Amino acid sequence: MTLLCALAAPAACTPAGYAPDAGLAPSAAAPVAAPLPRAHLRGLEGGVMLKRAAGDEWVSAHEGQPLYENDKVRTAAGARVLVAFVNGSELSLGESALVGIAETRPLPGRDRTDVTVVRGRVDAELQDPARQSLSVGTPAATVRAGREIVFQ
């Protein structure tokens, strides 16, 4: 009988003076922080295109444009661009390159940068190799470096 009452008319089954939310603070949704850029584009020469992680279209890139995890950058024939990471490391992309800004898994005591090179030449430079590392994945291999290194 009580179960039927609770389903059919819950207000009728509530004891007098009972307030279910009394004394409870309203639940506030935790604010969601906007993602922080992983890098910015510098020194664009020629046709440089950008594809956002959540997007389906390639758009023209511009100087200073922020890059986030899983964004992709593509250079046309004769083009080049510098990807300047917030930790000071840099990638120089030559012509006809395609790279992705990979999700980074932080390492204790090291500032890590992860990229995926699908095609083209990438020259990498670390500002402070003692505390930075760079992981470059390709369709065939992954290379990790703690010093200036050139990937082709």
Quick tags:
152 residues, mainly beta, Jelly Rolls, 7-stranded mixed beta sheet, 6-stranded antiparallel beta sheet, 7% helix
The secondary-structure element order is: HHEEEEEEEEEEEEE
Question: What is the CATH-assigned architecture?
Answer: Sandwich
What's the mean pLDDT score?
A: 77
Number of domains: 1
Alpha-carbon Rg, integer: 25 Å
Going across the major beta sheet, what is the strand order?
3-2-5-8-9-11-12
Q: pLDDT under 50 segments (min length 5)?
A: 1-15
Strand segment tally = 13
Structural class label: mainly beta
Largest sheet: 7 strands, mixed
> What is the CATH topology classification name?
Jelly Rolls
First and last CA, distance: 77 Å
Please give the CATH class.
Mainly Beta
Beta-strand residue fraction: 35-45%
Which percent range fits the helix content? under 10%
How many separate helices?
2
Shape call? globular
Descriptive account of the structure:
By secondary structure, the protein is mostly beta strands. It has a single domain (37-151), classed as Jelly Rolls (Sandwich), CATH 2.60.120. Helices cover 7% and strands 39% of the residues. The protein is built from 2 helices and 13 strands. The chain has helices at residues 2-8, 10-13; strands at residues 39-45, 48-51, 59-60, 66-67, 72-75, 80-85, 90-93, 98-101, 111-119, 122-125, 132-137, 142-145, 149-151. Strands 3-2-5-8-9-11-12 form a 7-stranded mixed sheet, with no helix packed on it. Strands 4-1-6-7-10-13 form a 6-stranded antiparallel sheet, with no helix packed on it. The longest helix has 7 residues, at 2-8. The protein is globular. The model is unreliable at 1-15 (pLDDT under 50).
